[in-house]
């Protein structure tokens, strides 16, 4: 190149005297005419082939048309380009032509712009600046010659009056510092953007994977993986994996950065730089150990699991007044969680203090500066050595501060990965459990079948042999726990096939014992993803007796059904579940006692119109589990189950002729009743049994028992949901939330934190100022004196700073734990003190979200954000003080930058908080969908709807990510803008230091410039941490949101004069009692006036929605009276505490709810009864033999919801609870619904014997259980239609007579 320049008659390619060692720097003509000309061209011609290949391979996104004017404007400049000057050495191929070609190709491929051309035009402009400067100087020279003032203008333009000072170098370094900082910001945040994108995709993929696994795991695995654990996997563990993707590279990049820093320190200070490595080597193992110990503490799973159960069974807790017992259980778990968190925060404070003191440790004796000055007295610490070293050490701070977080994130990700792997390795249903044989002659075949719930457990079903031909109706009967429901599960493939062969021909529809209802419209629940065919749809509604319900529901079949069917009665839910199956037109129908939850006449209607020989399913294969004896004669085949085996099989008449156990069973229970005949009246005889499992968030009975609702009320109910949802979208976080949070922290903690922060930063300022004084000390005879004194002061200030930082972080952490404890306790009390109407309008996902994600944010995120924000705020204050002391004119730059900073911060924080709320609101439906899916996995798999539900889950996850993506993009936008402001401040500080070089000492300049270099990161971290606090203070807002919701009456009245033995007789008086589910609705009960005497047995009957259960709700004050009053033993129940009332009366509810824990805890959560009392209650409930057979007996652990017990066994446990309480008043809500007839007879005899001296109110569908009662109350539309003894009501031949007629009792 030198030869080319010489041949062309130009100066050399590079001349240091012209470019560097001069007060007026310039580039040689050869350099300008070669390198500057060719650089953009080489770049474009080198990169364009690869870019064009990329455009060719990318998906086609359409064509972007260009107008003729645009085309001419694009082509004209390249055509009119002036010829290149003759003294250019080589003429490059025209890059403008290539640029135009690339633009046209981009438009054809649907690309509007590209980074390639942007960088090309930028490089072209930059390379043209130097020739432009030369041209301007020539013009100025010509003009100034004419004005005879050339030298003055030229010197002013260059900006230097002293050639020897070479001030332009200072400006050059300042400009390079600014440009490189900006480049670093752009590249770093591009990297962070891509990391977050990859992390978000990983999080989305893992959430989808967990959901898909939920649809595949076996029933046994589902007992081990509770809903709380799965929610934790989706919420916490996926987030940790995302954090790992973002920060993982720090683990390998950090050692490289540390190595480079120490390399430059070696170049500067020589071998003493090795001493600094020792401090770093000591810090790494300490923090690795701390990170590992912190990860071993995780108590959230147990608390979330228990909270899910509490929310699921909240109605039972209120009926039994068990809230305080479960408050204690949650409190024990929460105390353990906070204790572990406290230990974790102490360790984290040690880690944080050690890393933030790393720069001091590196530079302290016996480290860097100490070794340097003590090894040789000729080693002088001047400004250059000190502040270049300090700058390198400050650079070292970034990897050292990121490393503990990266290590902690990695360890957390490893633990989360293990939890995910454990979940994903859970046993799945085997596809070959059931063979699908489309051409088989028999529809259902089981040969030598042996089945168990687990692969290594004892078989629940043995020796099963059965063949069912197409179109037959098969009835399955047997005692509680005999294996009836298990047989259907085996046909579905839900059980482990240990031996034998199972095959099913065609599609399957399944109606579970517990009706599973989606949180969707009634229509969507019935269609279940299918296409609506109007005529068939109407026939199904009529056959399932739903047409009358459509008139009651506010929006007909478009009425939104709440979670778990909360606004439907038990009978309505079962009929909707049946309609869903009937609408599918499947080949095989497996019906698990679907008639148990409906009235007698409705059950007869459904059997005749749907299941029976003339029903809609008459040509289908039907396997019906039932306790209804009247249906058996119409079955083609009857299977009698006993202890997991088929004891008898045949038609009804065949079994009766055999005179075996089945025939004796039938004769026993028909002895006192009319024999079945061929009359329609006798055919209608049935015995109904309810089969309802744990109902999560079944709310007030106004929605369970349909009262006539208007469309206005429907709109009013919807508005509650809207208000609850829109409450998140306020313009900014209320200042009240900060006041509330800091109030719970306490004034003592706040003052301590502020003092320690100020003290820490004062020590840091003194520490750095001491360094500047040391740097300004002039050496005498090439040495400096008093090394020991300087190092001692230096060490004392550094140690003080480290201890103050430890105290600050620890105080903030402990204050956060105090606040978290109070906020969680307040949330728990607010939720449990809420009436049932609160749970009616609050989705379970919202509440679980509060107790998991929001509490976790209050536990960890807010204290961490406050630590970071306060630390950087005080650090920024220190930097500003140093800059103002060094260069007061910096204030002129600080003021406008502060205004821009405040604008950016306010704009970003408001937007970020909105995005945070959007993300939080869109997260709750994910949890709700997981919850719903886990409850209905058997139904989803039976109908083959897995793919549709997976798509629904994906859609909800995508909606959540749509809110999360702009949130982290906004964070990148903020960081780039703030770092640009920080770079401007660095530029100003550097330029002002260069301008004031004659007035400033080297130490002060070094101090100012080295600290100004930190402003970029400080500003970014301040707003980032501030935003984190603002975003997470929303959690306080969401937790405190429930403080202002309506609450039920107090649990216990202070100073109550209620007698200890109340009620002594059990007399109940209703005086003109009226009940409304909400103000403005129709009366659920109206003008109820009854006087129930002590020891009286009263049966309450009526059609669906007549108000039967509303009476029970009124007695327990689940709903408060709208008018009138209820008195028990002469005391108005509205004037006593809820627990005083509910603990003195007993109910056996329709839904047998159990909680995870021992049988002992489920029977006696307050632990007040002796073992003798427990065993006696179990014996009277006919469960003692079952419990004795268990390995752990009373300590046998129940699964979540009691899923490892049959429904009948759970109902018997509820009976045992009532026997333990033995109060003077007992309310039974279909208490024997889920047991077989033999067990039912035993239970009825137990109730009659053990509660003979009690007042008993029985809400009954099965009339034969109350025919010997003292009085019968017939309810109709919330009023008493008839009331008298059973015999008298039958003689009157009114409503009760009609019901007995339908039941075949008269």
From TrEMBL:
It catalyses: leukotriene C4(in) + ATP + H2O = leukotriene C4(out) + ADP + phosphate + H(+). GO terms for cellular component: plasma membrane. Residues 157-412, 753-1031 form the ABC transmembrane type-1 domain. It holds the Pfam family ABC_tran. PROSITE patterns: ABC_TM1F, ABC_TRANSPORTER_1, ABC_TRANSPORTER_2. Its main location: membrane. SUPFAM superfamilies: ABC transporter transmembrane region (SSF90123), P-loop containing nucleoside triphosphate hydrolases (SSF52540). Residues 429-668, 1068-1302 form the ABC transporter domain. It is a multi-pass membrane protein. Gene3D superfamilies: ABC transporter type 1, transmembrane domain, P-loop containing nucleotide triphosphate hydrolases. GO terms for molecular function: ABC-type glutathione S-conjugate transporter activity; ATP binding; ATP hydrolysis activity. It is an enzyme of class 7 (translocase). SMART domains: AAA. It is found in: Cell membrane. The chain crosses the membrane at residues 35-54, 115-134, 167-187, 244-266, 272-290, 744-771, 791-819, 876-904. Belongs to the ABC transporter superfamily. ABCC family. Conjugate transporter (TC 3.A.1.208) subfamily. PANTHER family: ATP-BINDING CASSETTE SUB-FAMILY C, ATP-BINDING CASSETTE SUB-FAMILY C MEMBER 6. This is ABC-type glutathione-S-conjugate transporter. It comes from Dicentrarchus labrax (European seabass).
